[in-house]
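Q: What would this chain look like folded?
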Amino acid sequence: MLDQWIAGAVQPAALRWFGQPVVEIRQISAYSCRGMNGNPNAPVSEHAFGNALDIAAFTFADGRKITVKEGWRGRPEEQGFLHDVQAAACGQFNTVLAPGSNAYHYDHIHVDLMRRSDGRRACNPQGVSGEEAAARARARYVGKGEVTGSARVATSAKRLGPPAFADHESSPVLPVAVPGEDGED
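A: My prediction, written as structure tokens:
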């Protein structure tokens, strides 16, 4: 399943957004015998069965590294790539949790194959296309920095806040987890 996602989604997205392949995927948690989100009183995590991965970063052939923590709200092409791979993961895995899902997943994309008796799948936040994420990012960066190609990008590491949507009713802004204000995953 993981190899299908990498070949069918990650590599095509890497080529589309950066013109080169991913040569390394940094995972930060695979097997770990524990409860969900590290809580000993919670149901057993899929990590305890070796049935889950937490992906924190992607390294490209030129050495460029895109972390989920910074790239999720980073440059338009970083957001485009990460949202494309997350949305594709939602079609491949039974559970996908990414930044914005909860405080425990602010810096990685969690994927697992949890089998639920009702057959339900979980994708949080709901996957959006990379094109949509990049367009939102471009709208935030307009007039705020240097021009790179057709997109304007911020020149400082300062967060620009949540994306501005034309219609807040149909496109709610998800809460953003703050590093250091949550438990370990």
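Confidence is low (pLDDT under 50) at residues 149-185.
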